[in-house]
Amino acid sequence: MELKKLEVPTTSITEVKRSPMEVFEQAKQAGTAVYVFNREKVAGVMLTQEQYEALVQELDDLHGKGNVLSKSPEIIEKRVVDTGLEELYQQLQENLMSETSISAKTLDERMVSHGFITRKTGFGGVTDMLNELKQSGKIVYQSRQKVSGKNVIAEVLGEQDKKARLLDHINIERIYLK
């Protein structure tokens, strides 16, 4: 990729080695990242801690775009799109996130009890759920009815519990409501 014109500050790897704090100060003053070159090629980018955290927050906001549930209290991010999802958020948090491991069958039954369409269709329903989880890292549910006039999609993120005696158990990491 050829860089024609950089609209951000640049520096050399030699300058970074000589005085990294000056490069951080340059990034802070410019309000943007500083490209670090090594032999006329971009070797990396330097950001201040604040700039990095702002980028991570923006990335989380882009990925979430809904309510987020997480087991770890310090990671819980609650983004309420509308008040209709607030109640659903609370119910899912209480019924799904309290357990460390849950069977795929129980997960499906609880999602159905909260108004989502079952994923256990046919003989291999639980197997299909686990395969989807292995392939994409999530199981996607669609609501049966609209909440506040909108269709709700729930993405259950997690992984198969390899420590469980039965292979159909899942460790839920997060649930996104969109």
From TrEMBL:
The record's annotation in InterPro entries points to: YefM-like_sf (IPR036165)
Q: Which domain of life is it from?
A: Bacteria
This chain belongs to the protein called: Prevent-host-death protein
Question: Record's family?
Answer: Belongs to the phD/YefM antitoxin family.
The species is Tetragenococcus muriaticus 3MR10-3
